[in-house]
Amino acid sequence: MPVRLRKFIGTILIIVLVVVYALVANTIAVATLGNAPWWGHLLYFLLTGLLWVLPAMLIIKWMAGPPHS
Fold this sequence. Notes:
With 69 residues, the chain is mainly α. It has one domain (3-63). The chain has three helices and no strands. The longest helix is centred in the first third of the chain and has 30 residues, at 3-32. The relative contact order is 0.16. Pfam families: DUF2842. The chain crosses the membrane at residues 12-32, 38-60. This is ABC-type sugar transport system permease subunit.
């Protein structure tokens, strides 16, 4: 697959990932954190704010392609 096409597909995937992840994370927060203390909100949003990076790293690694020898 050409590098340009791989980067285009990867960019679209990252945008979709961020939008869907944000919607799911906020929906879960609204449903479960209504009566939680402030530190519960802080921990939840800290964790979910960093957790999306893992799948994004996999997409970026795929976009870079196989290593050149």
